[in-house]
Design brief:
The chain is built from 7 helices and 5 strands, in the order βααβααβααβαβ. It has a single domain, classed as 5'-nuclease (Rossmann fold, 3-Layer(aba) Sandwich). The chain has a 5-stranded parallel β-sheet with strand order 3-2-1-4-5. By secondary structure, it is of the alpha/beta class. It is globular, with a radius of gyration of 15 Å. α3 runs antiparallel to α4 and α5 crosses α6.
C-alpha cells in the first residue's frame, strides 16, 4: 500500500508531533509519497513566513527523506473527472485538496490527512488520519 501525505502531515512532522515519526517508520520509504502539489503549498507557506530561512532549512531537510511524486497527465484526468462530479453534486472542495485527491487516485495511494472532512467528499478516495 502507498500513502500520499497531505500538507498538514508534513507540518505536524516538522513540529515533531508525538507518535507520527513512529507511524511513518512502520512503512517502507518507497510506500510514502509527497505530491508536488503539497510541495507547492509548503513553498508558499515558506515564502510568506516571517522565519523563511529557518522554515526553508526545516522543510528542505524533511523533504529530502521522501519521494516527491510529480503531478502528471493521469492525475490531471482524475482531477477533471472529480471536479466535474463534485460540482454537479454541489459538494466542491478546496482547489489544492482536489488536486491532492486526484493525485492520490492516480497513484492508487491513501491520502494521509488531518482534513478528513474535505477529502471524504471524493468518491473512491482512501483516507487515513494519523493525527487523530
Amino acid at each position: 500500500m502507498r500513502y500520499l501525505l497531505d500538507t498538514n502531515l508534513l507540518i505536524a512532522l516538522s513540529k515533531e508531533r508525538a507518535g507520527l515519526a513512529d507511524r511513518l517508520a512502520c512503512h517502507s520509504a518507497s510506500a510514502i509519497l509527497i505530491s508536488s502539489v503539497v510541495v507547492a503549498e509548503i513553498e508558499y507557506g515558506i515564502a510568506k513566513s516571517v522565519r523563511q530561512e529557518h522554515n526553508r532549512h526545516v522543510f528542505d531537510t524533511l523533504l529530502a527523506g521522501f519521494n516527491v511524486a510529480p503531478f502528471d497527465a493521469a492525475a490531471a484526468r482524475h482531477y477533471g473527472f472529480i471536479r466535474a462530479q463534485l460540482e454537479r453534486e454541489g459538494r466542491i472542495i478546496g482547489p489544492h485538496d482536489l488536486l491532492i485527491a486526484a493525485h492520490a487516485l492516480a497513484l492508487d495511494a491513501v491520502v494521509v490527512t488531518d482534513n478528513t472532512g474535505e477529502f471524504s467528499r471524493v468518491p473512491g478516495l482512501a483516507i487515513e488520519n494519523w493525527l487523530a
